[in-house]
Amino acid sequence: AREPVSEAALATTEPQPVEVEQEEEEYDEVEEPRRIPFSDEHLAFLNERLAKRSLPELLNWVSDTLPNVVQVSSFGATGTCIAHALSQLDIQMPVVFIDSLHHFPATVQHARASSDLLKLDLHTYRCPTAETRLEFSEQYGKRLWETDPERYAYLTRIEPLERAFKELKVKAWISGRRRSQGGMRAKLEILQYASDGTLTVNPFAHWSWEQVWNYIAENKVQVNPMHQLGYLSIGDSHSTRPATLEQGER
């Protein structure tokens, strides 16, 4: 059982820059020792080779090569595709879902349904002092994301992810990020180190939006129903809006 985290501790703890699927990432500097110590030269070699592999080949390599690996997913289109592919390959690993308590209800329902359908080893983490959005708002205010966005990010995503990595002893983690999402993700490699020293695996780094949806159609993958309402990227309900590809996914 995990130790409870007090409100006082949360109020005084400085947020640490851990990458989350819905946030922008920094990969320029690794602040902690690499938990799987590839040299830069070896990493560049692996990225060149892995870019030529199919999705099943890449995921099999991850499963056979990297210890203490998990998938981190918010159960958007790419995250669900990765979970589906792992299931088809009969690769078992923990799947970490960070429930910010501010997701669309459909997202939480989709995560649970995917876990049942694909027989995932789902681990859900959330703010340690609240179980519901109402409890969160009673403790921290109704619009903390506006009044103190850094604290909101820490309470709803950063601290739960750090706790998940500590409890699961994570050394590497799979994400659904792609270069085609733009912004800082335009420089993604398949393998990159995060600031906490973990190795991030981005199997879809070189995939386009069209390729993702071709995979969904060909494999009849059940995706978050919010996509059918025009949502390309699905995060918290207060910060996510329908968009077109011309407007950008994020």
* Spans where pLDDT lies below 50 across 5 or more residues: 6-28
Provide the spatial order of strands within the biggest beta sheet: 3-2-1-4-6-5
- Which percent range fits the helix content? 25-40%
Write the element-wise H/E pattern from the N-terminal end onward: HHHEHEHEHHHEEEH
**Residue share in β-strands:** 5-15%
Determine Rg (CA atoms, Å): 18 Å
Give the strand tally: 6
Form type: globular
Give the averaged pLDDT, no decimals.
Answer: 86
From the N-terminal CA to the C-terminal CA, the straight-line distance is: 36 Å
- Sheet with the most strands, sense and barrel status: 6 strands, mixed
Q: Kindly name the structural category.
A: alpha/beta
Number of helices: 9
What would you say this structure looks like, in words?
Helices cover 39% and strands 9% of the residues. The chain contains 9 helices and 6 strands; from the N terminus they run H-H-H-E-H-E-H-E-H-H-H-E-E-E-H. A 6-stranded mixed sheet has the order 3-2-1-4-6-5. Helix 5 links the parallel strand 2 and strand 3.
Task: Sum this structure up briefly.
This protein is α/β, with parallel strands linked by helices and 250 residues long.
Blueprint (SSEs and pairs):
Elements: H1 7-12, H2 40-50, H3 55-65, E1 69-72, H4 77-88, E2 94-98, H5 105-118, E3 121-125, H6 133-140, H7 144-147, H8 149-168, E4 172-174, E5 191-193, E6 199-201, H9 209-219
Parallel strand pairs: 1-2, 1-4, 2-3, 4-6
Antiparallel strand pairs: 5-6
